[in-house]
Amino acid sequence: MRIQGITSDSNSHLLSENERFSVKLINNESELNQARKLRIKYFSNHTIKKHKSAEAKKNETSVTKKLIEHHKLMVHDGYDSYAQHLVVEDLKTKKIIAYVRIIDAFTAFKIGGFYSETQFNINKILSDQQYNMEISRLSIHDDYDNELTARLIWSGLTQYATNNGFDAIIGSLSLPLGENLSGVTQTISRYKTQHMSQSQFRVLPYQLLPDNKLLTPLKFNKNEIKYPCVDYLFSNGVSLCGDAHWNKTSNTAELFIHYNISNTQSVPHCIHMSEVELGLLCNL
Questions:
Q1: pLDDT of 36-52, one tens digit each?
Q2: Which CATH number covers residue 188?
């Protein structure tokens, strides 16, 4: 794995895996359009399924209007113009296979708040007065939803955060609900049991999931849905900060997460030195 400095130059690779994949920030219109198409496809597939199965027979016109509104939000929801856009590109196919949006605390202050503030009461997070970096709209191509893609995304995010002096990564991860609400709630329940944050980082959702109940620990079974990328993030120190918010437009469960950047700091090289090497260093 080769790691390079992170810049907003669309030609600068942030990180590569065996020269096959590149993680980078994009800022040109062509790449942004490709990233938006991935985002639209990732979210719209689940929204269309939901509306067609539940409402299409009742009011086709209403469903069409909702889908058009949803499509517009996925293309541009007002935050995109102020955000950084990090992607994973398959250099062999020249396709963007994963996308995540970044908004820093200073930008959020200028535009009136983080995107996640439209979904959660995050007063506890903000009162901590850390320099936060928010992520949202994480989207992954179905054919690449695996641990490798997750590792590339997370490496790019933590490197960007470290290089730019952020204290923490916050934001929302979207779990498509589809037609298996029970499976999704079981997955979220597992996250709550295994990866819950400390009390000072708890948030409150503005809209609970469709069953209108706070999630409680359940007995996990085969109906639980697997999310490889989300599982990877939680297994690497990301914490869940409370109950899920139901985004009705995209039909997703939004999970607010928190991660201290200090967790990624590497151990100084001298710790790994032998006594002979340390002695030679002291005599220089």
A1: 889 888 877 544 444 44
A2: 3.40.630.30
Domain count of the chain? 1
Residue 30 domain boundaries = 2-282
CB contact at 8 A, 133 and 170: yes
Residues 6+ apart with CB under 8 A from 105: 131, 132, 133, 134, 166
Rounded-to-integer distance, Cα 273 and Cα 195, Å: 34
Q: Closest by alpha carbon to 168, among 107, 239, 99?
A: 239
Q: Which amino acid is at 68?
A: I
User: Per residue in 179-229, pLDDT tens?
Assistant: 778 888 889 999 999 999 999 999 999 999 987 455 555 454 556 778 899
Q: Is the separation of the CB atoms in 166 and 104 below 8 Å? A: yes
> How far, in Å, are 96, 200, 263 from residue 76 at the CA level?
18, 33, 33
Q: What is the DSSP letter of 242?
A: S
Q: Which tokens go with 154?
A: 């997370």
84-90 and 252-260 beta bridge pairing: unpaired
